[in-house]
């Protein structure tokens, strides 16, 4: 995702990936509304076919209606991570990213040399990367490096970026098993722990089990015998006659990188945050990091960025990460805690209240996020899909369609030719990747009712709003230079 975004922003991109082949592991399978909106904004949705969608999600195992969030792609979409990775890899390559598999990053340093994190400070004018590929080790000089290399991030370690938060206290064992026939269990809390079982389309059964009080200090992967023992303790069922086709474990560790940027090194995705994948938020959070970072880093790398733009990545996405990690921690407590039955009853009642439902569903779906920055209630929010009538130059359009190129958009809704001419002069006088679009005033009931003009960032968040004829120059300078 980040490689594609950087290419849209005009940067040269080299992706170094340790794996020789894409992973076939069964990992994330849920995309939420905001991620689907982003894919739509980049014209990627058709590449996903028609994935299954449902309204019902959950919060800590308590049913939560996600179908009511204000999005044209509301709900929970089932898309295997393997498909997400394939689609995004194709897209990034088409846009000109150089993706090299079987290349492992082993050392980082400033331009002076490798292995010294201090050489990566703000004063460095580049980063040296040692990578070993099929032809042996070599050094690469980059202006910027982004560690999007997962929760055990090598880049994070080499850059000396610490994580803070709470270590693991519980673990959830997972296995896909063939040859067993057991009842489905949806978030079943039992005296000895939590059990989840469901039949997959392939015919295998996915088991997840958290045995209360089990130790979490693990140095080796779990065995099938361990999973069978935990399953038997929690449910009383014997699944040992089955054949495991995949075994995994994750914990409730909740850790956030103390800095998302260290000089010319940045972190995105699981490299920046470690969390339990409750509510299927982990992959969504990472994809949204990438879309926040791409246009900013591309502007920086190509010399267009205003001062401070790149630092807004840390400010905005660390805050977003903290919010998600907090809600995941609350869900873990509700789902896995021993004494939480009264709390679950309370939350089950509260979730029926539209205001509570909307708040939680907005958070899980990612559409509720608002970056700090302005007094107008729309500033900092993502605009989402708003039909905009007829663009004077290009025919009928929408906020989604306007973001396809990954440029900023100044949207003039004044229907005033003189205002349009002034805004046109402003935009034309800049080298920034911003274009002007004029559309008729939005009808009553539109989210843009009463708005005279607005500035949309390439990531779909609102940077500036005017009800009248205010001058957008300060906002254009702040976000686009
Ligand atoms: C068992 C399991 C189940 C999950 N279920 C869900 C779920 O249901 N919902 C959800 O939202 N999330 C889920 N997740 C989490 C989700 O898979 C991650 O959040 C997501 O993969 C993070 O993407 P990423 O690109 O940040 O990191 P990763 O997907 O980990 O990608 C990092 C990449 O970097 C490469 N790499 C690492 N080190 C180096 C190096 N030194 N040099 C070169 N390349 C390197 C790796 O090979 C890897 O391809 C699950 C994860 C696991 C493990």
Automatic annotation (TrEMBL):
Pfam families: FAD_binding_3, Rng_hyd_C
Cofactor(s) needed for function: FAD
Signal peptide: none
Superkingdom of origin organism: Bacteria
Record has Thylakoid as a keyword: no
Molecular function in Gene Ontology: FAD binding; oxidoreductase activity, acting on paired donors, with incorporation or reduction of molecular oxygen, NAD(P)H as one donor, and incorporation of one atom of oxygen
Protein name per the record: Oxidoreductase
Organism encoding this protein: Parafrankia soli
């Amino acid at each position: 995702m980040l490689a594609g975004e950087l290419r849209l922003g005009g940067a040269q991109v080299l992706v170094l990936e340790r794996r020789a082949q894409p992973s076939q592991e069964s990992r994330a399978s849920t995309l939420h509304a905001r991620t689907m909106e982003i894919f739509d904004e980049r014209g990627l949705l058709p590449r996903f076919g028609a994935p299954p969608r449902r309204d019902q999600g959950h919060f800590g195992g308590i049913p939560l209606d996600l179908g009511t969030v204000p999005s044209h792609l509301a709900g929970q979409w089932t898309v295997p991570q393997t498909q997400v990775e394939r689609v995004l890899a194709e897209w990034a390559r088409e846009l000109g990213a150089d993706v090299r598999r079987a290349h492992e990053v082993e050392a980082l340093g400033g331009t002076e040399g490798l292995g010294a994190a201090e050489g990566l400070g703000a004063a460095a004018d580049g980063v040296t990367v040692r990578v070993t590929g099929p032809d042996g080790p070599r050094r690469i000089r980059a202006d910027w490096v982004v560690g999007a290399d997962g929760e055990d991030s090598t880049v994070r370690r080499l850059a000396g970026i610490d994580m803070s938060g709470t270590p693991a206290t519980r673990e959830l064992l997972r296995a896909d098993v063939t040859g067993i026939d057991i009842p489905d269990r949806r978030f079943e809390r039992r005296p000895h722990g939590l059990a989840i079982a469901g039949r997959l389309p392939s015919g295998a059964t996915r088991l997840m089990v958290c045995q209360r009080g089990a130790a979490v200090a693990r140095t080796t992967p779990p065995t099938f015998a361990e999973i069978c023992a935990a399953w038997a303790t929690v449910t009383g069922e014997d699944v040992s006659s089955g054949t495991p086709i995949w075994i995994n474990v994750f914990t409730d560790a909740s850790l956030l990188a103390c800095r998302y940027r260290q000089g010319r090194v940045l972190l995105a995705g699981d490299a920046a945050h470690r969390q339990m994948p409750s509510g299927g938020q982990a992959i969504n959070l990472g994809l949204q990091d990438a879309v926040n970072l791409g246009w900013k880093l591309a502007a920086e790398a190509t010399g267009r960025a205003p001062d401070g733009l790149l630092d807004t990545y840390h400010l905005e996405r660390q805050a977003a990460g903290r919010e998600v990690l907090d809600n995941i921690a609350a869900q873990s407590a509700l789902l896995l805690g021993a004494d939480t039955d009264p709390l679950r009853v309370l939350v089950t009642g509260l979730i029926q209240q539209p205001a509570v439902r909307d708040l939680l569903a907005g958070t899980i779906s990612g559409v509720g996020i608002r970056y700090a920055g302005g007094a107008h209630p729309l500033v900092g929010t993502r605009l989402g899909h708003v039909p905009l009538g007829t663009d004077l130059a290009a025919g009928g359009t929408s906020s989604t369609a306007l973001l396809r190129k990954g440029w900023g958009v100044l949207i003039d809704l004044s229907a005033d030719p003189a205002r349009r001419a002034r805004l046109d002069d402003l935009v034309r006088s800049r080298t920034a990747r911003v274009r002007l679009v004029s559309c008729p005033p939005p009808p009553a009931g539109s989210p843009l009712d009463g708005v005279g003009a607005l500035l949309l960032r390439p990531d779909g968040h609102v940077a500036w709003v005017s009800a009248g004829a205010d001058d957008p120059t300060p906002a254009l300078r702040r976000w686009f230079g």
